[in-house]
């Protein structure tokens, strides 16, 4: 089959994976918008969230190994998402308190934040490897994965539809949170000018903590969705994390809608490129996109949100 024959199937697969990249990328872009730094330990928040959701869902599965259906499937997915989000939020909160807050109080140089993030990332990876094992941990089927409908001859499976729908719902929810609530106003105020935000009565410390936790909630829920397709492992965070960072840079680091757009575009580029060349080149394509964006338009497609660090 030629590329045109597979175009719609590749598009559906690309949008599904791209929506996951977008969810993870929002954690990078939120923290950068407020603190003007890249949280390179965010990929491990994603990984810990995936295990939290996976173990919660597995604990409630029937003992006879049967695949649940109907409301039972909906409940299992919801519990997995909730558990993953909670674990991701707790991991992000702990990360901010332990790895970043002491440095911020001492007005440490930016390099110290990077070193602290790398140390926290290595600690989390090795802790997960010790506690959860060094092999992939699979998530049993939570629902019957059949074809729901077709789009121009391309099959849309139950799994693809669930992942894409939940991811898009989270993206829209965050966009409304940032654009239409008092909390969102506080986040945007701190991102634009932290000193002026303090004078206007904004609690910057509270905004920073909430920003980390919101990014962690999204990453944890995204980790569970990722584990539904690709399983979970202690080292799973690195590659999706780099791709999500690429998506954030592609859309414009610090720009929430840019991260969403960047994730979807990167998923499509990977899907098309993997078919035109080889599937093993998907990771290479993501790195090439990152290098190209940094060389051609480092501010991203929708422009960088410039502000002063809190």
From TrEMBL:
Domain of life of the organism encoding this protein: Bacteria
Coiled coil regions, renumbered to chain: none
This protein's UniProt keywords: Amino-acid transport, Cell inner membrane, Cell membrane, Membrane, Transmembrane, Transmembrane helix, Transport
Any Gene Ontology CC annotation: plasma membrane
Regions crossing the membrane: 20-38, 45-61, 73-99, 111-129, 149-174, 207-228, 284-303
GO biological process, one term: L-isoleucine import across plasma membrane
Subcellular location: Cell membrane
Molecular function per GO: L-isoleucine transmembrane transporter activity; L-leucine transmembrane transporter activity; L-phenylalanine transmembrane transporter activity; L-valine transmembrane transporter activity
Membrane topology, from the record: Multi-pass membrane protein
InterPro entries in UniProt: ABC_transp_permease (IPR001851), BCAA_transport_permease (IPR052157)
Family statement: Belongs to the binding-protein-dependent transport system permease family. LivHM subfamily.
PANTHER family named among the record's database cross-references: BRANCHED-CHAIN AMINO ACID TRANSPORT SYSTEM PERMEASE PROTEIN LIVH (PTHR11795), HIGH-AFFINITY BRANCHED-CHAIN AMINO ACID TRANSPORT SYSTEM PERMEASE PROTEIN LIVH (PTHR11795:SF371)
The protein, known as: Amino acid/amide ABC transporter membrane protein 1, HAAT family
Species this chain originates from: Frankia torreyi
């Amino acid at each position: 089959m030629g590329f045109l024959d597979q175009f719609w199937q590749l598009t559906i697969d690309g949008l599904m994976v791209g929506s996951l990249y977008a969810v993870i990328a929002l954690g990078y872009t939120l923290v950068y918008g407020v603190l003007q730094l890249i949280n390179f330990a965010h990929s491990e928040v994603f990984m810990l969230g995936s295990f939290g959701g996976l173990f919660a869902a597995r604990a409630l599965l029937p003992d006879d190994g049967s695949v649940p259906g109907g409301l039972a499937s909906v409940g299992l997915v919801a519990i997995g998402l909730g558990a993953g989000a909670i674990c991701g939020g707790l991991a992000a909160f702990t990360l901010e308190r332990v790895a970043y807050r002491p440095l911020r109080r001492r007005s440490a140089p930016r390099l110290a934040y990077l070193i602290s993030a790398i140390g926290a990332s290595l600690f989390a990876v090795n802790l997960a490897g010790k506690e959860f094992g060094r092999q992939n941990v699979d998530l049993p089927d939570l629902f019957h994965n059949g074809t729901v409908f077709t789009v121009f001859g391309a099959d849309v499976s139950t799994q693809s539809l669930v992942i894409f729908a939940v991811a898009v719902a989270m993206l829209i929810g965050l966009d409304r949170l940032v654009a239409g609530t008092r909390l969102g106003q506080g986040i945007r105020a701190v991102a634009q000018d932290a000193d002026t935000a303090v004078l206007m009565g904004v609690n910057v410390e509270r905004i920073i903590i909430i920003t980390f936790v919101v990014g962690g909630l999204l990453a944890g829920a995204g980790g569970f969705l990722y584990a539904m397709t690709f399983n979970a492992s202690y080292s799973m965070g690195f590659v999706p994390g780099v791709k999500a960072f690429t998506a954030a840079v592609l859309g414009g680091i610090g720009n929430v809608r840019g991260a969403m757009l960047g994730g979807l575009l990167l998923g499509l580029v990977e899907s098309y490129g993997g078919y035109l060349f080889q599937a093993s080149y998907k990771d290479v394509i993501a790195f090439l996109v990152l290098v190209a964006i940094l060389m051609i338009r480092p501010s991203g497609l929708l422009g960088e949100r410039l502000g002063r660090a809190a």
